[in-house]
Amino acid sequence: MADPFEVRMRFSSQLEHLNASTTSAQKAAQYALKYKDMDEDLHSCILEQLEKTNMNTRANIMYFIEHLLEMASKERHNDYVRMMQRDIIRVVDAVCPENGSGAANVKVVRKVLQGLQTKFILLEQTVIEIEGCLKERDTSANDFSLSSPLDGNDKSAAPASTTDQDVSGSQPTQRNGVSIKPTRRQIEQRIEEDRERHKRMRESMWVVPSNPIDQARKFFAETSGLGEDDRILGDEDIIEFRLRVKDTACTRHRTRGSRREERPRSRPRPRTTNGAPARHYI
Hints:
The chain is mostly helical. It has a domain at 4-145: Serine Threonine Protein Phosphatase 5, Tetratricopeptide repeat (Alpha Horseshoe), CATH 1.25.40.90. Helices cover 61% and strands 4% of the residues. A hairpin with a 2-residue loop joins strand 3 (272-273) and strand 4 (276-277). Helix 2 (22-34) packs across helix 4 and helix 4 (55-74) runs parallel beside helix 7 (106-118). The longest helix has 35 residues, at 228-262. It starts with a helix and ends in a 5-residue tail after the last strand.
């Protein structure tokens, strides 16, 4: 049996080094399912990493959670699903806090929540309630948390405390222990990771599920609701289709009748007996 402390440390290291690739998320999810007997410890490890890492790592962990819950559902290990359903509010608060430091992660949270709802892992009512909280935290692109850390012309900004680090460091600028701005390195890393995710998203658009049920669910999720205009167009298409079928049937009937009239009448052949014409006696 593996040492619980060692398993926890390795899992924490995998979460810290997550990136935008699907391989890293699947590898960490497989590791969590491998030691599913320690699911409570690993779940608490996920929450701890969300609360102490930077903005980009939180986004990567959020995408990892979607992979983990999907794989756990397929393997019928519902403990991870149950614990995440219980602590989903805490996860959302950690990924995009109310102080605005995680405003760039609001779209990430929405996308993951919609994916979990499509996979029937989260209830629709739960997603709607969380969406109401996200609307208050969603800010515009001019929000201070997304502004460049290299802007030195802002004279109205408050002086940084002694915990502020250089823009080339690995930690964001902090005031009173709260992350205010991402560093230049984090901004560049986020741009590269978003580019990689968009590339995978375009590739996944052409992937057809092998299971017909999954394919039907995908079509249903991508199809918009029917309106009054759609019903009117549908009725018009049905009427046009019936008229075309009727015209085609009438055309075929007339063609067959004309062919029968044009066919010449054949003369009766004389009766023969052993190759010679038969004789008729009166």
